[in-house]
Each structure stands twice: as structure tokens, then as C-alpha cells.
Design a protein that fits this description.
Elements lengths: L1 E6 L2 H11 L4 E6 L4 E3 L4 E3 L2 H8 L3 E3 L9 H13 L4 E4 L17 E5 L7 E2 L2 H8 L3 E8 L9 E8 L6 H25 L13 E2 L15 H10 L7 E4 L2 E5 L2 E3 L11 E4 L2 E6 L2 E5 L1 E3 L6 E2 H6 L2 H4 L8
Parallel strand pairs: 1-2, 1-6, 2-5, 6-7, 8-11
Antiparallel strand pairs: 3-4, 7-9, 9-10, 12-13, 13-18, 14-17, 15-16, 16-17, 18-19
GO molecular function: methionyl-tRNA formyltransferase activity
Organism: Corynebacterium testudinoris
Keywords: Protein biosynthesis, Transferase
Length: 315
């Protein structure tokens, strides 16, 4: 089939690479405009844009898809010229307006990293870990006006491991989802896919703010563990010690440790333990302000606040 691919970040690159290995023809990609990054704030293309340029594929970077705007109208004109049969989408990051949904015979086909209707929205991987789900997966579906409400074309499942961070799980789903997206394109071309409406009560995964990532030490140890893993690496789970805001890496539960109040710290030999609402956890790594992630015990040994007080606590 003749495809236009829409996507922006690194997980979308995996899917684009997979589609490039198929017999489908990718005539263009739609991605977010170049963004300023790094200390020099220089402009960088999105990961999808960079890969497309490597393969000599036309790159379209509208700032908006809204009709009546210069970028929106230019995109509509180009889509009409390119005449795609389907537009696979992976984490594109821009609202697709109603009038564009029928621009291709097979529509815009989104790869979403959950088993719909579970975790519709912007952060399904993080939500699944934070909720303690055992199983998640990826779905391909035809985009319609509602938020991730369209008919499902295919699914693949993935077990959530006890140590999975959001990055770990998203990496696996990016690869299994890429295979699913390629198979969906094949099935649409062959006329072998029967779309089915989503069944069951939907749940929602809203966009995560920095404030959402703050650790609540009054929560049970299992919930603290899941919360930290769900927000690793971005935006990074965090807490406060005195006037310092610290990012905290994944923890392990310490069921045999002597009790601590929620948020209270204890340094034992090469361990830093913290109390929660139902037990004690051991810190793995922390990131003090202006520094890189470091071993929690090394951080504690060099922290005068911890050594200078009988009792200190996170808040």
C-alpha cells in the first residue's frame, strides 16, 4: 500500500523502521517541527524526521493541522497530491481534525500502547504500571473523533514484569507494536481485517505533569514502588529533603526491616531505607539537584543533613 507515516519520538522510529522493511511504499512522513534541545538550544529534527531523511523520504512538519491555517491548508494540498491509502500513526503529538480523517481509504491507523479500551489517553504505559496491572499490550485502531475510541484492528499482549520501569515496558511494546502495525497494514491491503468496536469500561491515562510524579510516602510500599517505576525515566519520581528536591530511582521492598515512619530515612552500612505507609523500602539511586543519578548509599554518606540529625524525613 501507499502510506504516509505520522509520528515523532523514538518509539515511533521502531515502527517506521519496521514498515520500511515491508513491501509497502512510504511516500512521506508527518512529524513535529524541529525543536530546540541541549545546552546550546540548537534546533534538532524529531527522531522520525531524522530517519526519514536518511532514507530520502519527504518530511512534512506542520505546526498545526487546523483548516484555514497556512500549515493546515498546505498539508491538505500535499496529502491530496500524495494520495495515501492509509496513514499509520505512532505518537505523532498533534490533533488530527475531523475533515482529515477520511483523506485515505483506510484512514489514520493509530498504534496505541494499551489493550483498548483500557488506558485511553497520553500515558498508557505509565498508567498500567502505576495501577499494578499484570498484563498490557498494544492496539491498532482507526482514529475517529473521540479520544482513542475507534474500532480496533489488531492487538498484541505483553506481561508487565515486577521490575519494569516505563522505559523498559515501552521499549518492549515499541517492538511488538511495530510488528502489529506492519501486520495491520498487510491485513488491510489484503482485506483480511474485520474492525471490531471496543468492548468494556474504558479507563484513562492523562498526560503526566511533574507534580504527578511526586512520591507519596504515606502510600503502601507496593504503591510507592509502582509509582517510582511508572515515572522512570520521565518525568522522574521525586521527593523533598529539607530544601532539596531529589529524583528517586526504583526501590526494593525490605520486608524484614525495622519499622520507620512514612518518609523517614535510615542509613545502614551500604543501604538507605525509607518508611512508607505499610513497610520499608530500600533506595537504589537518587539524583540530587544539579547532579547525575548516583548510588543512594554514596549520596547519604556525603550528605551533611543526614549525618547531622538524629532523624530526617522525605516529604
Amino acid at each position: 500500500m501507499r502510506l504516509i507515516f505520522a509520528g515523532t519520538p523514538e518509539p515511533a522510529v521502531v515502527a517506521l523502521r519496521r514498515l520500511l522493511d515491508t513491501d509497502h511504499e512510504i511516500v512521506a512522513v508527518i512529524t513535529r517541527p524541529d525543536a530546540r534541545r541541549g545546552r546550546g538550544r540548537t534546533l534538532h529534527p524529531s527522531p522520525v524526521s531524522a530517519l526519514a531523511q536518511e532514507h530520502g523520504i519527504e518530511v512534512l512538519t506542520p505546526t498545526t493541522l487546523k483548516p484555514g491555517t497556512e500549515d493546515g491548508e498546505a498539508l491538505r494540498a500535499r496529502l491530496a497530491e500524495l494520495a495515501p491509502e492509509a496513514i499509520p500513526v505512532v505518537a505523532y503529538g498533534n490533533l488530527i481534525t475531523k475533515d482529515l480523517l477520511d483523506v485515505a481509504p483506510h484512514g489514520w491507523v493509530n498504534l496505541h500502547f494499551s489493550l483498548l479500551p483500557a488506558w485511553r489517553g497520553a500515558a498508557p504505559v505509565q498508567a498500567a504500571i502505576n495501577a499494578g496491572d499484570d498484563i498490557t499490550g498494544a492496539s491498532t485502531f482507526r482514529i475517529e473523533e473521540g479520544l482513542d475510541t475507534g474500532p480496533v484492528l489488531g492487538t498484541v499482549t505483553e506481561t508487565i514484569r515486577d521490575t519494569d520501569t516505563a522505559d523498559d515496558l515501552l521499549t518492549r511494546l515499541a517492538y511488538s507494536g511495530a510488528e502489529l502495525l506492519a501486520a495491520t497494514m498487510d491485513g488491510l491491503e489484503a482485506g483480511a481485517i474485520v474492525p471490531h468496536e471496543q468492548a468494556g469500561e474504558p479507563t484513562y491515562a492523562h498526560k503526566i505533569s511533574t507534580e504527578d510524579a511526586r512520591i507519596n510516602w504515606d502510600a503502601p510500599a507496593t504503591a510507592v514502588d509502582r509509582h517510582i517505576r511508572a515515572h522512570t525515566p520521565a518525568p522522574g519520581a521525586w521527593t523533598v529533603l529539607g530544601e532539596d528536591r531529589l529524583k528517586v530511582g526504583p526501590v526494593t521492598e525490605a520486608p524484614d526491616a525495622e519499622a520507620l515512619d512514612a518518609g523517614e530515612l535510615r542509613v545502614i552500612k551500604s543501604e538507605v531505607q525509607v518508611g512508607t505507609g505499610s513497610g520499608v523500602v530500600t533506595l537504589g539511586h537518587v539524583q540530587p539537584p544539579g547532579k547525575k543519578m548516583m548510588d543512594a548509599a554514596a549520596w547519604a554518606r556525603g550528605n551533611a543533613t543526614i549525618h547531622g540529625q538524629q532523624k530526617v524525613s522525605f516529604s
